Amino acid sequence: MMNNEIVLETKGLQKSFGKFQALKDVNLQLHRGEVLGFIRTCAAGKSTTIRVILGLIKASGGSATVFGKDAWKQSVAIHQNLAYVPGDVCLWPNLTGGQTIDLLLHMSGKKRTATTEALIQEFKLDTSKKNRTYSKGNRQKVALIAALSTDVDLYVFDEPTSGLDPLNEVIFQQHVAELKRRGKSVLLSSHILSEVEKMGDTIAIIREGKVIETGSLASMQHLTRNTVAVQTQQPLSDLDGATGVYQLQFSNDDQTSATFSVDSDKVGAIMTLLASKQIVTLKTTPPTLEDLFLRYYATNESQKVGE
């Protein structure tokens, strides 16, 4: 269950590599018992942000704290209560999967438990095989099993399901839900928007080194549009040019069947108009995270063209 305790926070985070400024203004907050979905466009600074949070590189400006500790200066103490899975796992080629899991646990001061064995069975990993024979998906399984075997307060997953089949993606999602129920905190970076939408309590969108929006999906849905499919007894010609209506398409010559998108703050007025036309069938679809993401992307691209 979420509470107000802040587990991870960045304020005005900046990072430069020579003259290139990878991070310009990254502000994030992750609370106890919360899943923060972190999504990005290409070359947005997501990986750099995670590396700063993990204490792998030093910020050029701003601050990053985990458990109230400085992410750079106190990284060793922080890592005792943190588990991390990267998006592209590199393993020791001559070790078996089982040996690697044991080694990763040992490096974290942990030991193999019944939980570890259950995870191996769930993910159907053959731990007797050498790492060099593993596919990308199996390498991800090794890291996920080791991470999920630990009992820590913060889990950082960077593209964790890359290479996994849909069944194993579901297994991962179930374990994230269980972590949340146990009051654990999760920073989840994923390019699979539906995955973030299913699990994220809060969503942060980063673009060109800045967090351009953060909040719950529900709180952000007012920024995009609902999709409407409707059939009425009377023509819907009044919709053409109506305020807040976009992408209007009629499905028949009588103009009694149409699909369109509508701004969330105009839904009430449009529903009143539709009701006056004697509705036969009506289907509305709320905006998804993908809709929101693509709208941000399109808006920023159009602004660039206009500059």
TrEMBL record:
Keyword Transport found: yes
GO function term, MF aspect, one: ATP hydrolysis activity
UniProt keyword terms in alphabetical order: ATP-binding, Nucleotide-binding, Transport
Listed Pfam families: ABC_tran (PF00005)
CDD domains per record: ABC_DR_subfamily_A
Domain (ABC transporter) ranges: 8-233
SUPFAM superfamilies: P-loop containing nucleoside triphosphate hydrolases
Family under the similarity heading: Belongs to the ABC transporter superfamily.
The name this protein goes by in its record: ABC transporter, ATP-binding protein
Organism of this sequence: Lentilactobacillus parafarraginis F0439
